[in-house]
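Researcher: For the annotation table, I need structure tokens for Receptor L-domain domain-containing protein. Please keep the output clean. Sequence:
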Amino acid sequence: MASLQVINASLGLINNEIESISFPDLTKVGGTLSIVGNDDLKSANFSELTTVGGGFVIANNTKLDEIDGFDSLKSIGGAVVLTGDFDKAKLPALTSVKGGFDVESTGELDCSDFDELEKKGRIQGDKFVCKAASSSTSISQSVSETDSDSSTESGSASETASSSSSSSSSKGAAAPAVGTMKATSVFGSLAAIALAFL
């Protein structure tokens, strides 16, 4: 896998006993990238990955306390779902997310970088959640049909800030689906999670 450069479909690393993942030359995943339920995983290296065509899902990896190693990732064509007990999540090059954005950690995660990404309009989906032990941000956007033709700079999106309790209800809906999925239906479940945030 060290020389693999492009994956045209999806890549799933699910319920394995691996301690590290390294795809140092991989630049593109055409579908969804899923790293889910790897209880021994401590690190992931996708240093040259620039594009994920589908969803970007990293969830329930018990020992993964930092989500990094994605320093070149610029574009995600679907939703972002990051859940677990991590203190850091870094996507420094990210400029475009076509779907929703759901980051929920029981660790001391700082949401400020992701909040800034949302404020700049780089997250195009209708939901944005960043929730950690120390902070919480949740925004839902909706566009009415009568206003969608408007070409004003401010647009017709109405933003509603939700409370922590409403964002936790979204966590309750997503987390069990990830935690209880079977290997035979994992991509269907992940696709359902990703579509929920489009």
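Researcher: And a one-line annotation?
Model: Residues 6-145+153-196 form one domain.
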